[in-house]
Design a protein that fits this description.
5-stranded mixed β-sheet; 2 domains; pyridoxal phosphate; about 15% strand; globular; alpha/beta; 12 strands
Length: about 400
């Protein structure tokens, strides 16, 4: 018998996270669902097999482990259904393939995750889909970019690496007036701090590699859709044969239990570091939506419930020819901050941002952009580490 399943929406976020996808009664009382591995599923008779008259029929179509994670994400997102995919990038590409066909046009925000742009400019182009990029601050001007064959509008807020905000409700309302599906990469905020479907988005995408996992040891993505767009998303997943692994699903589900506590720590520490950076002479500006100085702060404050642990700053440098050398000197002097591309884990990371693919939101003229992921370390230690980076950069 399943323990209580109703009323989660009225509970606090950490209470909800402790009980989502939680059904000990179905697993002999064990509090965590076991990892169910398998491809073959047996049927009791040929009629059941012919009609697929049982819950599970083949490993790619779901297991008790993957279903537990999907159910948890559906409750967090307020979605009709969720699919699991092998990576955060696949969480973008599978929906694009689901909703776009040859001859269609898509609008994608210019501050989008870089590999998404690569997919649009290569695979989608080869398949006969035209993609245009728009300014995240375009607002009502988006309407002028929509063509008769526009089928999808993709959003990301805050934007990758430079953290521009978007008015997601306005974008969704405009897109829906023209019959477009609206998708959003919500990896930065997670559904704890922003629920895309509540703001008009049709399909919410996440790299569950990041905060849901939280331990830098798995690669996975999730896509959650509203009732109108769920059937087509599910069909695309089945047709493409793409699914999430049970082991990774187990780890993400385990990570969800502590995501609220971890995010609160990431948020507090990142804001403290960002505010400290704002006061340094060596920093031109800090790109963090929760800072009052940030251009998109009002939108963030209106729509979001919190901020996470990743943001960027511009290292003040005279002369573009010195950008790379100064950035590399800064990064190479760090010892607690690892040099790595991912984020959302327990450890702090840093990298020199490449914005060469942008068409609208181009790189600043005042210095290189350094992206920081603030982990779970003590802030005083992180500040000391960053000071070493500034000292090294100044010496170049």
């Amino acid at each position: 018998m399943k323990k209580k399943t109703s009323g989660h929406s009225a509970l606090g976020e950490n209470t909800r996270l402790a009980h989502l996808g939680h059904d000990p009664g179905s697993f002999h009382g064990f509090v965590n669902p076991p990892i169910t591995r398998g491809s073959t599923v047996l049927f009791p008779d040929s009629h059941t097999m012919a009609t697929r008259g049982q819950k599970y029929s083949y490993g790619t179509r779901g297991t008790p482990t993957t279903d537990a994670l999907c159910e948890a994400l559906d409750e967090l997102e307020g979605s009709a259904g969720t699919i699991l995919v092998p990576s955060g990038l696949a969480a973008i590409t599978v929906p694009f393939l689901a909703y776009l066909s040859a001859g269609d046009h898509a609008l994608v925000v210019d501050s989008v995750y870089g590999p998404c742009r690569e997919f649009c400019n290569t695979t989608l182009k080869r398949l006969g889909v035209t993609v245009d990029y728009y300014d995240p601050a375009i607002g009502a001007g988006l309407e002028a970019l929509i063509r008769p064959n526009t089928r999808l509008v993709h959003t990301e807020a805050p934007g990758s690496n430079t953290f521009e905000m978007q008015d997601i409700r306005l974008v969704s309302d405009i897109a829906h007036r023209h019959g477009c599906v609206v998708t959003m990469d919500n990896t930065w905020a997670t559904p704890l701090y922003f629920r895309p479907l509540d703001h008009g988005v049709d399909v919410s995408m996440h790299a569950t590699t990041k905060y849901p996992s939280g331990h830098s040891d798995i690669i996975m993505g999730s896509v959650s859709a509203n009732a109108e767009h769920w059937p087509r998303l599910r069909q695309a997943q089945l047709s493409l044969g793409i699914c999430g692994a049970p082991e990774d699903s187990y780890l993400v589900l385990r990570g969800l239990r502590t995501m609220g506590v971890r995010l609160a720590h990431h948020q507090k520490s990142a804001l403290e570091v960002a505010q400290w950076l704002e006061g340094l002479e060596a920093v031109d500006r800090v790109m963090h939506p929760a800072l009052e100085s940030f251009p998109g702060h009002a939108l963030w404050k209106r729509d979001f419930r919190g901020s996470s642990g990743i943001f960027s700053f511009v290292l003040k440098v005279d002369g573009k020819e010195r950008f790379k050398a100064k950035a590399h000197a800064f990064l190479d002097a760090l010892s607690l901050f690892g040099l790595g591309y991912s984020w959302g884990g327990y450890e702090s990371l840093a990298l020199h941002v490449d914005l060469s693919d942008r068409t609208i939101c181009k790189a600043p003229e005042t210095g290189p952009v350094i992206r920081l992921q603030i982990g779970l370390e003590d802030v005083a230690d992180l500040k000391h580490d960053l000071e070493a980076g500034f000292t090294a950069a100044a010496a170049v």
